[in-house]
Amino acid sequence: MPAFRRSVPLDKAYRLLNHGPTVLVSAAHEGQRNIMAAAWGMPLDFQPPKVAVVLDKSTWTRQLLEASGSFVLNVPCVEQVDITQSLGNSSGLEMSRAGRDKFSAYGLATFAGQACAAPLLEGCVAWLECRLLPEPHNHQQYDLFLGEVIAAQADSRVFSEGRWHFDGHDRLRTLHHVAGGHFLAIGDSLDGRQLPLAGDV
Amino acid sequence: MPAFRRSVPLDKAYRLLNHGPTVLVSAAHEGQRNIMAAAWGMPLDFQPPKVAVVLDKSTWTRQLLEASGSFVLNVPCVEQVDITQSLGNSSGLEMSRAGRDKFSAYGLATFAGQACAAPLLEGCVAWLECRLLPEPHNHQQYDLFLGEVIAAQADSRVFSEGRWHFDGHDRLRTLHHVAGGHFLAIGDSLDGRQLPLAGDV
């Protein structure tokens, strides 16, 4: 394991997604694997940590995820903006029919997770391994998938002790997709202050 | 209406949330109203646009939302970081028992929506008025609420023609909560490029 990759305690795993980054969803089943971009993902619970993510019916990742019952949310960074755009704009199903997959097609390195069969993408800044929660109505009606996070890791250069700290690491800032390959990188930190109530001294 | 506030076409409404900002959820019912912060919200569909948001069982906003069948997602900005923190860290139910609400307690100005009874908070940079989709299992099991967006507006200084453009408006950047009143502001824009496939010329 690279020196900077660290396990994240499960009770802090929600903080990897709390600020709303675009994620890359990976899944694997019976020797096949895929990865896709998803801007529509969020935490759903603290402990045990849960997540929600929207996956269109047309996607190969969704088929692998439903078959395997697990998936990984990889959190990509500025360094990976072209990879993220390409993974969001290509069809794993078409590639699989041609006997290849997105990982080989784009020359992407992966590593094995701690709890899921799905591959984890090298170069991301966080990884959440998830067990699918069976909710067929949400799958069919809303393309909405819920999962329980069973293992989490992050790049300690930018996430440690439950906080992101991107200063000095602009290439490791998380990506936030707007539309059509246009992204915003996450910016500077600031702290909110509790305001006094009107009428209170 | 202030000169900078503009309606957003419904087919572009998802772009107001696509980059994962923290939102302020407002609801009103029979003369009572409340507003709370929620980091766990996301788009759920393009057209008709839908959203998902997580609301704890203890919240007064949730009670008003369930009673009225509608809610508003207000998107706050850096200028409002103290308001956002305060709205996320105070109880509307306690205030209502004391005969006040968060709007009066914090001196917050609101304006009427186009489609919902819930108040829209002045100073935010986007507003999505939503009709609650009745999904009792998601409400009870996951504190998860789905809504259809029936009207949307944005501050045209930072959102127009389906894109955010925050350059020169640092105080209007969206907020992305990490934990405990610690936020990240959204940063600079960048565009992803489609990579060639390995082996292709």
Automatic annotation (TrEMBL), chains A, B:
Q: Where is the Flavin reductase like domain?
A: 15-166
SUPFAM superfamilies documented for this protein: FMN-binding split barrel (SSF50475)
Q: Which cofactor does it need?
A: FMN
Pfam families given for it?
A: Flavin_Reduct
> Would you say which domain of life the source belongs to?
Bacteria
Q: Which organism is the protein's source?
A: Pseudomonas sessilinigenes
Q: Which InterPro entries match?
A: Flavin_Rdtase-like_dom, Flavoredoxin, Split_barrel_FMN-bd
Q: What is the lineage of its organism?
A: Bacteria, Pseudomonadati, Pseudomonadota, Gammaproteobacteria, Pseudomonadales
Similarity comment: Belongs to the flavoredoxin family.
Swiss-Prot/TrEMBL keywords = Flavoprotein
The entry's protein name is Flavin reductase family protein
